[in-house]
Each structure stands twice: as structure tokens, then as C-alpha cells.
Design brief:
By secondary structure, the protein is of the alpha/beta class. The protein folds into 3 domains: 9-124, Alpha-Beta Plaits (2-Layer Sandwich); 149-262, Elongation Factor Tu (Ef-tu), domain 3 (Beta Barrel); 275-416, Nucleotide-binding domain of ferredoxin-NADP reductase (FNR) module (Rossmann fold). The protein has helices at residues 25-29, 78-82, 111-114, 242-248, 285-297, 322-326, 350-356, 358-365, 380-394, 399-408; strands at 9-14, 35-37, 42-44, 66-71, 149-158, 168-174, 187-191, 205-208, 222-228, 255-262, 275-281, 307-313, 334-339, 370-376, 412-416. The strands form 4 sheets. Strands 8-7-10-5-6-9 form a 6-stranded antiparallel β-sheet. The protein is globular, with a radius of gyration of 22 Å. The two termini are 29 Å apart. It binds flavin-adenine dinucleotide and iron/sulfur cluster (2 copies).
Amino acid sequence: MNAPESADVLRQHLIDPEICIRCNTCEETCPIDAITHDSNNYVVKADVCNGCMACVPPCPTGAIDNWRLVLKADAYSVDEQLGWDVLPEQGTTAALAPAAVDTSSAAASTPDNAIDDPSPEVDTVRGSTVPPWSAAKPYVNLYAHKAPVKATVVGNYRLTDEATESDIHHIVLDFGTIPFPVLEGQSIGILPPGASADGRAHHARQYSIASPRDGERPRYNNVSLTVKRVTQDHAGGATVGVCSNYLCDLKKGDAVDVIGPFGSTFLMPNHPDSHLLMICTGTGSAPMRAMTEYRRRRRLKGATGKLLLFFGARTKEELPYFGPLVNLPKDFIDTNLAFSRTPGQPKRYVQDAMRERAADVAQLLKDANTYIYVCGLKGMEDGVLQALKDVAERHGLNWETLWQTLKREGRLHLETY
Ligand SMILES: Cc1cc2nc3c(=O)[nH]c(=O)nc-3n(C[C@H](O)[C@H](O)[C@H](O)COP(=O)(O)OP(=O)(O)OC[C@H]3O[C@@H](n4cnc5c(N)ncnc54)[C@H](O)[C@@H]3O)c2cc1C
Ligand code: SF4
Ligand code: SF4
């Protein structure tokens, strides 16, 4: 019910299938499960959405911010939306003139002003929908599906031990003279060539940038990615992930269609006294690498900002960037590794490592200069939030109050996929 029951007309909330990169952020954010998807599209259920706008600021592409006045009886069904390749135009019949929209009910109090007032309902989402106050201003959506930029592969290296099944690659893409300004924490979209079985062009997949704003190689116009080759679906069945396999198989000199950049909240603070509490698994290390490397390149004399990293993988051999990570100076970054499948060892997850370091985590939680970043597999989010809650409460902090503060101040950033 995007508009009230009594009206003939409703302002229907729709997602633009041409821009949407199927990142699932909106579905996770919606507090009342009004968003669903299939292998083709993300769509909004007209009879459930109340126009609260919680999903709009976190959407990295803006695809979510589309609204059409429709006769209530003609509202686009979920099935119709799932079949779309493009958004329908706004209809023009007299009944759809704005005056025909009844704004009398509670449900209408947000949708009608929603387009002009994108302020998020921060309570409905688990992480921040605003960036840190000192973050640099990001560029977003410079290149879209219809006009992607061509990047050239200048490096593609396997990061994980050859003996493991986990095949994670470090891929460097160069933009030559084409502007592609990025910040740590942002992501890009890759358009894999080809089409799915039904003949539709493959949709874009999103990848976090693993290099700092001044390039994988300083002062070069390039970015790096950390890509895991998907060979199993979430249920463990054999599959060949379209984009991850395409990327992992790229050779030096190949051209890749890139869109973006995306992301305007999962950004690092620029003030040097800020602390970064980074918690990641697997390829979730990509944004942490970007932020860490930026801080390393700009180590400022006298700065008091600390870096505390919790990094999980199944084994040491499956941990991307293991070598460089353990070689970073201890007075620069405090690194805590957790392995869940080391033969002969008990399972240890990032949240276990956080609890072991509870006193240090709590000290950071008490500090208004602390910014928390969580990135990796979707399954980690609950455990990490629970660990933060446990640590906070064991050290006399009210987690519910602190959580709201962290979200409101752009100090708790979650990106899981
Ligand atoms: C904000 C954001 C940032 C991301 N950053 C990264 C990154 O830095 N590195 C990275 O490797 N990926 C990242 N991803 C995931 C990436 O976008 C793709 O989803 C992933 O590479 C799989 O795409 P695919 O085309 O290979 O698989 P698809 O062809 O889309 O999927 C094939 C099958 O595998 C399942 N599947 C999809 N992803 C996974 C997975 N990760 N594990 C197990 N099964 C899966 C699907 O459900 C499907 O059944 C990110 C996603 C988001 C939303
Ligand atoms: S791009 Fe926006 S609309 Fe598409 S799935 Fe992500 S959050 Fe939802
Ligand atoms: S506007 Fe609110 S109810 Fe509607 S889809 Fe977005 S988050 Fe859900």
C-alpha cells in the first residue's frame, strides 16, 4: 500500500531494472519485507510497501528511487515487475493527476513527501546510512549500464594457496585516461559479457575496491579487486558463478566493462585521530585492505588513530593477503586472525577473537573517534553484532543506546553479501 486504501490512485514504488545491480541491500533494509527478487529482478510488493524510505539512502545506484502514479486497480504486480527489462513510463490519464492522490491516511504521510525528503529511518536498519563526518565526498554512478567504461586488466594473481579449493584473485584494472575517481569502501560494477539462458544480458555484479583512492599503484589510474571464484551455490551445490569466473579467468590486456563507482556511506573517516575497528572474512578484506593501505601511505606524525583488525577464514592458506598482512608493523595495525577449519584446532571465528580481545574492543567502543566496518559473508553479521553487544555490556555500556549512536554518527558500517 504505497498510498492509502481509500484512494483510487497510488504512488507505486518501483525498482529500475536497468540500473539495479542486484546487491540485495534494499531487501535487507526494508523493515517490513516489501522487497523480493528472483534471478532476474528486484521488485517492490505494492500491497506491502508503506513508503517509509528506509531503503532509499542505502541503495548504491539509486535504482530504488522510482515512483509511478497508477490507478490502484492497475498496480503493477510482482510477477509483472519480475519480467521487466525497463521501467514503464509514467501514465498520463487524468485520473493520475497528482490531485487525484488521496494523502489522508497514515500510510501516505511518508510516500507523498518521500521523494523530496530522503531522510532515512535509521532505526530500521542495522548499520549506518550516513558516512563518517570527515569522509571525503564520493563520486557515484559516473558510468551506468548503457555507457560503461572500458578498463584494461593489468594484473590477475591468485591470492590463496594452490592447494586449497578457495580460489581468490587479486585483479588490477586500469582506466587509462578515463576519469574513475574512487574512495576506500566503494565498489564497482562489472558487466560480464554474454546472456543468461533466457537471452537477457547478464546483470552487473558488484565488487569492493581493494586499493586506496590514489590507485593500486600510487598515482596510477587503477583499482584492484579481491574476487572469489564461485564454484558452489549457497546450498553447496556445484555451479559456475557467471561474473566471478569471468573475472578470475581474465588475462593481462583484456578489456572489461565497468560501471559505478557505487557507495556513499561505507567510507573511511579522514581525520587522522579516528580509530578503525575492522572485522572481515574472506573477500570482505577488500575494503579493509584499501583503508589500511591508505592509512599506511599517509601515516601522519603524531596521529593517535588506531587500527584493530579481526580477519577470519577457514584456514591460513585461504586467507587472502596473508603474507603482506602479517608483515605490517605491529605499532601500525593490531591484527587478529581467526581460522575455523585448521586441522586439529578448535573452530575459531572472528567473534571469538573479538571476545578474546574484549578489553581493547571495549576501549574503542567507548571512544567517539571509533568507526566500525564489517564486511564479508552474510552469515557473519549476526555473530559480529552479538559479539559487539556482549563486549559492550560486559564493560558497562548500554548496547542499544550505543548502537543507535554508532548508526546515527556514521560509525557502524555493514556490507555483507
Ligand atoms: C556490495 C557488494 C560487494 C561485493 N564485493 C565482493 C568482493 O569484493 N569480492 C567478491 O568475490 N564478491 C563480492 N561481492 C559478490 C559479487 O557481487 C557476486 O555476487 C559474486 O562474485 C558471485 O557472482 P557470480 O556472477 O560469480 O555468481 P552468480 O552467477 O551470480 O551466482 C551463481 C550461484 O552462486 C550463488 N552465489 C553467489 N555468490 C555467492 C558467494 N559469494 N558464495 C556462494 N555462492 C554464491 C548464487 O546464489 C547462485 O546460485 C559483492 C557483493 C556486494 C553486494
Ligand atoms: S541496486 Fe538498489 S534497488 Fe538494486 S538491489 Fe541494490 S539496493 Fe536494491
Ligand atoms: S519504502 Fe520502506 S516499505 Fe517500501 S520497500 Fe522501501 S523500505 Fe520497504
